């Protein structure tokens, strides 16, 4: 007869450990609630009428009148959406090539003052926006660029470019040099190696930098408020003027807020895999 194996007795979970586990669950649910509640409440408000918007009931007759109203007189957000889209995409279109090229040079080429230059680029990220607002305004007023998309693009590049350079340099540093050396052996020049080997391998970082640059330009409010007046009002600034005889039109503000969020949610959905990879891989050399 075979000897019976002794049964392993499971240790009971202590009360303190169980309470700690429940505390983690409750804490996570509380964080999710406080993050999601304003978004859900704004979503509900976008489909409420003028009466229901001041009530806390969750069951109501939904309406699309708020979305129709913000595209009609006197709001007319259509032109503001076009300005925000134009400025955001042009900012990304300029940031990514210049940022990738600068990050590649700082990562792969050795020259005097390289680290000092990189440090100066990072220092610009710590300068408060209010400090440079007046110099920017005076500069653009002298150049006749007030209330133009060009002024906004130049200002947005001042903080999207340093971020893209910092992020993409981490990706280039994490990429082994031997991969590029192998392409040189196969007969590729530096440009061909950069195009066919290096860029595809750092594509997650490029996508992350592009998304963050787009979000920064799309959501920016402070400089847009100072540098634009009527012709080049961006969507965040135009929303500020949605009001009527009874004060802020909360139902229309909620609808406009949903329009601001839609591009960000759509982009985040399609690049979510690259987004996670970009944050985790590019952060470590």
Verbal overview:
The protein is mainly α and about 280 residues long. The chain folds into two domains: about 15-65; about 70-280, MetI-like fold (Orthogonal Bundle), CATH 1.10.3720. About 70% of the residues lie in helices and about 0% in strands. It has 13 helices and two strands. The chain has a two-stranded antiparallel sheet. A hairpin with a 2-residue loop joins β1 and β2. α3 runs antiparallel to α9. The protein is globular.
Q: Total helix count?
A: 13
CATH class of the largest domain: Mainly Alpha
CATH homologous superfamily placement of the largest domain? MetI-like
Question: What is the approximate shape?
Answer: globular
In short:
The protein has 285 residues and is mainly α. The protein contains 13 helices and two strands, in the order αααααααααααββαα. Helix 1 packs across helix 12 and helix 6 packs antiparallel against helix 9.
